Amino acid sequence: MAELAGPRLQDALATCGASLQTDRPDIQGQRLVEVVTWLLAVPVATALIDDTPLPDLAPDNVQLWIGDEPPEGNGLKLLAPRTAHEAHLDAHLAPLIAAVNAATKRPAKALWRAAKDRQDGAIAWVAEISNQRERAFTLLEDKAQVRLLDLGTHEMLLHVREGCCLYYRTPANVKCFTCPLLDDEERRRLSGAT
């Protein structure tokens, strides 16, 4: 992570910007923090949903890949299959958020909010795909906005972000499905349900 928050930062920001076709540093930084958080949060969310030991995500046990074609098809590699008592996400995110804030001027508060949104979103996503929705409601109670969204043919678990990711300010000009700026009718339209 030290390399990502240091010498690899500009390359990682450019990669994230290219993925969204934007040269705006604030959006590149937002995307980088969200991608890294997602890579770290999914294995933690899986352990929480399945009620199994947390993977050891200590910085000395993790390799992260930002870019096309990550080794072994995954942007996160655990160097040893250890378990831990805590997730260590802040140990990764604090130096990255500080570096992204300095490089892009995206406020640290917004980046931390994005990291929380991705962690909460990972729990909701893992719960949805593993058919354990109630577990997400339990884990996120009083912590995040999670509810069922009726799409007409079925319901899906929806996590609504606390903060905007800014992706609608890219050339695609589309708000993400979990955007706090959308209402449920707009979500249904985005999903093709209406």
Describe this structure in words.
The longest helix has 26 residues, at 25-50. The model has no long low-confidence stretch (mean pLDDT 90). Helices cover 47% and strands 11% of the residues. Helix 1 crosses helix 2 (25-50), helix 2 (25-50) runs antiparallel to helix 3 and helix 4 runs antiparallel to helix 5 (133-140). The chain has 6 helices and 6 strands; from the N terminus they run ααββββαααββα. It has helices at 9-20, 25-50, 89-104, 108-129, 133-140, 184-191, and strands at residues 54-55, 62-64, 76-78, 83-84, 145-150, 155-160. It has a two-stranded antiparallel ribbon with strand order 1-4. Strands 2-3 form a two-stranded antiparallel sheet. A two-stranded antiparallel ribbon has the order 5-6. The chain has one domain. The protein is mainly alpha-helical and 194 residues long.
Task: Please describe the topology of this protein.
Blueprint lengths: L8 H12 L4 H26 L3 E2 L6 E3 L11 E3 L4 E2 L4 H16 L3 H22 L3 H8 L4 E6 L4 E6 L23 H8 L3
Antiparallel strand pairs: 1-4, 2-3, 5-6
Helix pairs in contact: 1-2, 2-3, 2-4, 3-4, 4-5
In short:
This protein has 194 residues and is mainly α. The protein is 47% helix and 11% strand.
Keywords:
single chain, 194 residues, 11% strand, mainly alpha, 6 strands, two-stranded antiparallel sheet, globular
